[in-house]
Amino acid sequence: xxPSSIDLILPMLQQxxxxxxxxxxxxxxxxxxxxxxxxxTLADGRRYFLKVNQAGLLEMFAAEADGLNAIRASTxxxxxxxxGYGVQGQQAYxxxxxxxxxxxxxxxxxxxxxxxxxxxxxxxHGWFRSNTxxxxxxxxxxxxxxVQFWQQERLGFQLxxxxxxGYPPRSYEQGLRLKESIGALFxxxxxxxxxxxxxxxxxxxxxxxxxxxxxYDPAVYYGDRETDLAMTELFGGFGADFYAxxxxxxxxxxxxxxxxxxxxxxxxxxxxxxxxxxxxxxxxRMTEKLLAEI
Length: 294
Hints:
With 294 residues, the protein is an alpha+beta fold. The chain folds into two domains: 6-97, 2-Layer Sandwich (Phosphorylase Kinase, domain 1); 107-293, Aminoglycoside 3'-phosphotransferase, Chain: A, domain 2. The chain has nine helices and twelve strands. It has helices spanning 6-17, 58-73, 107-118, 146-164, 169-181, 226-234, 240-249, 256-275, 279-293, and strands at residues 23-28, 36-42, 47-54, 82-88, 91-97, 121-122, 131-133, 136-138, 193-196, 205-207, 213-215, 221-223. The strands form four sheets. The protein has a five-stranded antiparallel β-sheet, sandwiched between helices. A three-stranded antiparallel β-sheet has the order 6-9-12, covered by helices on one side. Strands 7-8 form a two-stranded antiparallel sheet. The mean pLDDT is 96.
């Protein structure tokens, strides 16, 4: 489906906004590599953001809506309100509040509000449902044991996918060694189960015209807050003001300097499973670095 097709989009919006609406403009949004995305303008001037994909991915949108609602309930960082999701013909869709976003804003506020979001905790690590990380499945089986969670639901899960996708046997074996050894990195550190964005790279943070931060496209679960901070460092886009404000609100443990490589290994293995090529070599280097620390 072309997201600019008013005839196909209109029934999606009517399911949640009523039969009497009329669409005047559909503007295809840039930047999305998984879903077809567009900004939809109605005759009365209201605007909405729409994501569309194949019908079989409805649960991906349902999980995203649940994640956005979890972040909204924390009353910390702003995130778009999910207005509805469903299937129309052969297409699944997610209808979201439209927010006028820009690339630059108050990073100090973003850091402080992320720390506030992380103060919202649960009894167990994981989440009540699985979701996706990019285009990959993400399991969130709940447990009180964070090390076990990371071994099984994160590192082990991606390693097995990588093995099937051609990850070199030696690198895979080193990954298994690391998986069984990561408890050493948590000898003096027992993280709380914080509410996490889960996919917090620079492309998932933007700002309203008044400079206030907005996060979106989450892969929500509860776990070590260091995982969110680690990913902010993986691809850049977060400045010194962001980190200073976060640490002022809730200082990071000294062991973060080592553990952030472990946490980002999950994302690099996921990138290998999605895109292949040089990400496998990067994952192997990260694994060797971590094994040397243990």
